[in-house]
Design a protein that fits this description.
alpha+beta; 55 residues; 4 strands; two-stranded antiparallel sheet
Length: 55
């Protein structure tokens, strides 16, 4: 059985797994539209968010 490819909402790449932060320390996306990201986009967005929170 072939696993269905999923599409990253940020870059459009087809991948087997997507990630999304909903609630994290100092971050709450429960009221935001869901954006599912490949691992690369997820890590970039997470690093950017953490940088902004540390300012």
């Amino acid at each position: 059985m072939t696993q269905k490819k999923l599409v990253c909402d940020t870059c459009g790449k087809e991948v087997e797994h997507l990630r999304r932060d909903v609630v994290d320390e100092g971050y709450n996306a429960l009221n935001k539209p869901p954006l599912w990201n490949c691992e690369e986009c997820y890590e970039k967005k997470r690093a950017k968010r953490q940088e902004q929170q540390s300012r």
